[in-house]
Design a protein that fits this description.
The chain is mainly β. It is built from 1 helix and 12 strands. It has a single domain, classed as Trefoil (Acidic Fibroblast Growth Factor, subunit A) (Trefoil).
């Protein structure tokens, strides 16, 4: 018997699926529209405040069996989640769970070359970075601050 090569064929065109697949299973830094990177604010808070990608701003994005993605903060090994106290949909790093609060859909818009991270279990809110760095799921938009 001879070994079989299961490697994927070389993709020459860029499309939404190839863009999304390019970040899965890899260490990434997530840059917001402000030019700042998504990082850890304190023990469990998330903020878009890092000026450059560094250890506190590194994430591992990995897929789940149900088609969602989990964002794991590499330094703390905790997963990004969208909490709902007072319907603020705050982004937090509370634990290592992989339940509905930690699962996101990844959307890619080819026109503006941007990713959107949507939590379908929290009314479809997108991860949003406000100009002051506060990170939460403010709305379901796919525009500037998301």
């Amino acid at each position: 018997m001879s070994p079989v090569d299961f490697s994927a064929p070389q993709v020459t065109e860029t499309n939404a699926l190839s863009k999304v697949c390019s970040i899965l299973g890899r260490k990434v830094a997530i840059r917001a529209h402000t030019g700042k990177y998504l990082g850890r604010k304190d023990t469990d808070g998330i903020v878009c405040a890092c000026n450059e990608p560094k250890a506190s701003c590194e994430w591992l994005v990995f897929p789940t069996d149900d088609g969602h993605a989990i964002f794991q903060h590499i330094k703390t090994q905790r997963n990004l989640q969208m909490e709902t106290p007072q319907q603020k949909f705050e982004a937090k790093l509370r634990n290592k769970n992989q339940k509905i609060w930690e699962k996101f859909l990844i959307e890619y818009d080819e026109k503006c070359d941007r990713f959107f991270f949507v939590n379908p279990f929290q009314k479809g809110h997108t991860l949003n970075c406000a100009p002051n760095g506060f990170t939460h799921g403010a709305n379901t938009n796919r525009m500037l601050h998301e």
